[in-house]
Design a protein that fits this description.
Distance between the termini: 193 Å
Largest sheet: none
Shape: rod-shaped
Number of domains: 1
Strand content: under 5%
Length: about 150
């Protein structure tokens, strides 16, 4: 009978372990609730990852398509930028010429002003001389007509 006593003692130990077990005293329900929470959190993460994937991979407004558009725009603009850089270099080469030309233009403006002043004076002198010659001619004709 010792086998039966031994089996009974083992059964009583198992019964005690089951009664004192936290799993059967609400622990299993808490574990099931934690699994539900974990499942809902996992579902939220899945939705967030799907939204990120849609944001990145959307054919019209996605990040990848915008990057592709920017790269194609950059490749389209590169020849123009190269031309602008060459023009900038040419412009830098033209700056000394422009400064020299502006100095010469200022000198020519001063000369032009002087020539205009001289022209006005010469025109007045010609009118005075012309008037004097004309008056003398009229006087000479007057004297010739009334002397005879």
């Amino acid at each position: 009978m010792s086998d039966i006593d031994e089996v009974l003692s083992k059964l009583s130990q198992i019964d005690g372990a089951i009664k004192n077990s936290s799993i059967l005293n609400g622990g299993f329900d808490a574990l099931a609730e934690d699994i539900k929470d974990l499942r809902s959190d996992l579902h939220e993460v899945k939705n967030s990852v799907q939204e990120i994937k849609d944001t990145v991979n959307h054919p019209d407004t996605g990040v990848i398509s915008r990057i592709r558009d920017l790269e194609s725009e950059q490749s389209r603009r590169m020849p123009l930028l190269d031309k602008l850089n060459t023009m900038g270099i040419r412009y830098d080469d033209l700056l000394p010429w422009r400064d020299d030309t502006e100095k010469r233009l200022d000198h020519l403006v001063v000369q032009n002003t002087q020539l205009e002043s001289w022209q006005k004076t010469a025109t007045r002198l010609i009118w005075i001389l012309g008037g004097t010659v004309g008056s003398l001619f009229v006087k000479m004709l007057w004297e010739l007509m009334f002397k005879v």
